[in-house]
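Bug: token stream looks shifted between consecutive jobs. Job 1:
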Amino acid sequence: MRKFVVLLAGICMGLGFAWEVQAGSYQNLPDPVEDHDYFNEGVFDPGQVQLGRLLFFDKILSGNQNISCATCHHPFAGTSDGLSLPIGEGAQGVSVTRNTGTGPDAVHERVPRNSPTIFNSGALEFNKMFHDGRVSINPGAPSGFDSPAGGNLPSGLDNVLSVQAMFPVTSGTEMAGQAGENTIANEAAINHLAGAGGVWDLLAQRLQAIPEYVDLFKAAYSDVNVAGDITYVHAANAIAAFEAHQWRADNSPFDRFLWGDRDALSPEAKRGARLFYGHAGCSHCHSGPFQTDQQFHAIAMPQIGAGKGDNQPGYADGRDDFGRERVTGNADDRFKFRTPSLRNVELTAPYGHSGAFATLEEVVLHHLNAVESLYHYNQTQAVLPSRPDLDALDFQVMNDPDRLDSIAQHSELPVVELNEGNLVDLLAFLRSLTDPASVDLRIDVPARVPSGLPVFD
């Protein structure tokens, strides 16, 4: 293992943090997770959960009927896809076997950000969604939420997770397809989301035309009496109920430790917990019961892929990704992304908003000295299905010294020293956040879906 640069004295002053290390003690440990930490106290209507499960795996919700929610959030890949950046509509295969497609149906671009995991996303504290938080709770908005749809977001959505489920189907790159390929893609291209003939209405019409789905919606919702009553809001609420119910993960060794079982953690994991909540400072951002402060931070994360369309001074190619600034319009939020939860973190590689780090060890090492890691990033660890035109865009930012300097200058992270034994212990603690029930999720995949479309390619 590599050696680490030492710089502990005063390292936290730049972030306004201060703490004391008490040898042999635990500090700042979160409270155990309980039912009241979740929407509906973790209880969801079984009919909605079952309906949501089928919808989640059904390609009927995509414009060209060739991709489902599960393609990029698959149980076989820790509710993500195992890729640095997703390969969306037009591709073939599952997880790391996914390719870029062939002929005129091939993908037009990579999805510009890593596919986030879904574990515990039904917890109340997850009040913002996506890496940049562009979907969030806002009691003052007509729908109760802020979102890219603005005033076009329909009412009746149960929670912020339901709102999130409204948007992948509207993205040409993710699920809708390209304009000219299908009517849903055409509507998405001109931003006709709501109302008669909009994306969500067209998808509802597809579901209304499938008798098995009509029966399932009628059984799950009291306000659905005939096929015409089904809306995409019903579908989004069902998908959210499934995700929140099925992928709750709070029975890890660390959870059992917090509930009083002091033998639940190995000696290495116990030492790692002391580091995490003490000397290493991890818990300043990865705080709370799900190891996230739900805030946004700039941590010099490598930028790979074609970007989100942002432009730094002197560059007009749109290859940059300004993160939270895209939502707030505040330049102080440039390169800030939401702190991810660390629950089941060993199952959810690659890591970072661009999936830049292939292993848990590599992303931990990045956090210890983020700027040095950025400048010495090993591009070979990116997991990206190859195609020459896409490959040519992947590292344009990382190969540009000026852009690299800009990302580095915004970094908030101090440099922290850990020796090799410390690193082993910290990784042991992170692995203690894995719920054993999340390791094998094969049972979550239905054998068939009501549309009759194949669950797998």
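Job 2, same session, no restart:
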Amino acid sequence: MARIRVVTDSACDLSAEVAAERGVTIVPLSIRFGAEEFVDGRDLTTEEFWSRCKASDVLPETAAPSPGAFQEVFLAAADDGYDGVFCIDLSGALSATYQSAVAAAKAVAERIEVRVVDSRSVTMGLGLMVLDAAELASAGADLDALESRATELVSHCTVYGLVDNLEHLTKGGRIGGARALLGSMLSIKPVVVLVDGVVEEESKQRTRARSFQYLADKMRNSPPLSRVAVAHGAATDIDTFLALIDDVPSEHPLIVGQLGSVIGTHTGPGTIGLCLITSS
């Protein structure tokens, strides 16, 4: 039976406790507020990030991990006697994180085999894929099986985002095809969707309540669901949204968590992300 270590990055929004429980190693990105830089999850907790985000006049920025940060983790797996490493990262269209992991995999090739997959996703869309990989790895799946499964899940994963406004997406340069929303950004509560790893316009809703209902209907009308997660950026009305979807069935239990610093940097407070993986 193969022993494979599963690795991802901190954009997955899995808690440290869940990652440790599932045997997943998380390589952190960095968060900058002006001249101050923090290692995500080590120097700055999610709660501290949102508190600082609401109080700061400076919008935060993110920086991808260096290849060396991934290389250190990959070599640690070799030292621990693992047969290989399976690494799945946030969308390469949004960050250089995937490219750093690929460079690191090449650098350690003589010590340990590493497969790196671009999830084309973010937040708990990535997190749900990581959980799937961790379950397969714990059951003895080899690198070929893990890579095949993750590649399949890319096309079955959808991430919707209800953002309170587009300021963070615009200034962070991650607006993608949702740029058409800018002209009316003050009068709408936009819903965006990740399409092939980039942010696109999904819907223009006049109120936040209508956006909630729109997302709930998208989930309810979806093909059969395997995994579902909701990640929110200190949204005070998250319970209202959860009440709209609590009767929608899925193969695995709904996961609810905080939207982390990496994605929160580009979406801002009040964001609610709905992450779906349909059954394959």
